[in-house]
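Entry 14. Structure prediction run on the chain below.
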Amino acid sequence: MPGPRPSPPTFRWLLPALGLLILAVVGLYPILAARRDLHTASANDLAVLEAAGRQLASVSSRLMPSVVKIRCRRLGERNGTVEETGSGVITRHAASGRLIVVTNAHVIARGETADLRVHLHDGRTLVPRRAWSDSASDVAALEISAARLQPAEWGDSDALQIGSFVLAAGSPFELSHSISLGIISAKGRRSLKLGAGDVINQDFLQTDAAINPGNSGGPLVDTRGRIVGINTAIATTNGGGSGVAFSIPSRMAQRIVNDLLQHGRVRRAYLGVVLDPDFTAEEASQLKLTRNRGARVINVSPNTPAARARLQANDVVTQFRATPVMDFDHLIHLVSLEPIGNTVTLGVWRSGRRIEVRVSLSDRDVIGKK
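Output returned:
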């Protein structure tokens, strides 16, 4: 008896399989196309890159006549002559119309004008007519006078964002009029150990633009060639740049320069308190604060703005006007650059609750002379 005849094959699986294959191809297409585009630049891509290159070249060309090299000759420890170099940028002081070179205080090293030489882009060398210096911000200004000087424009450092493109100009390693490209890596950097440790106005821009010894005092500019910072320091383990450099924001530099030219010194406001430099999380918890941000008051000096406003030991200043206070360095910086005589509102944490205290700020130097 013949066995059962095998049933004819069915193709019910074919349509679903075909559909899956089509979906797989559709899904892979963007990936394959992207890989292809990685190796093939379109005419539009090249045009964008070339336009960006032309813009950077144009900014560099316009900026370079404003960038100077500064040489400072001074006596060394053994009465020998020491020569140091740095950079600077020519600007025009808006209030007086004078042409000045803005640089770092540590570049001119408290030298007399006769000890300073300003080397221009066109090869000329000038002796400054006058010099001002403020070690507490590491900003200095030199008044110069000559024909055909080209001042650079100031920009707004507050408008910068993390990732904004910037250019750093100066004379690193004696290589005059060099320029490098980078981005703003961070803002509001404080508590840096600089020089003798007397820089109290710290609110630095951090950049990865190549900055090396000799760049100090040179400008950091935006993509329109406007000064947004004055390069001042690098983080290094070997004396060279490592992609972490710091610049004084243009807003602060202009404020310092204005005071130097108008008053001969920087007039700093003053609270009259001793602050805790090591405010810990444990101390914050004891004061019923959820985190250790703010500046804790250790002591209040008599006959000072803080005493008149009745600030107390163990008060934690958490806000200055509308700005949250991060630590004691931040509060010192905010207070010192406030105009003399202004009355400001402080947010203060006291005895487990937040209060507001109004303080009329006085001149630090005037209080010290009383």
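Residues 1-11 have pLDDT under 50 and may be disordered.
Filed with the rest of this week's runs.
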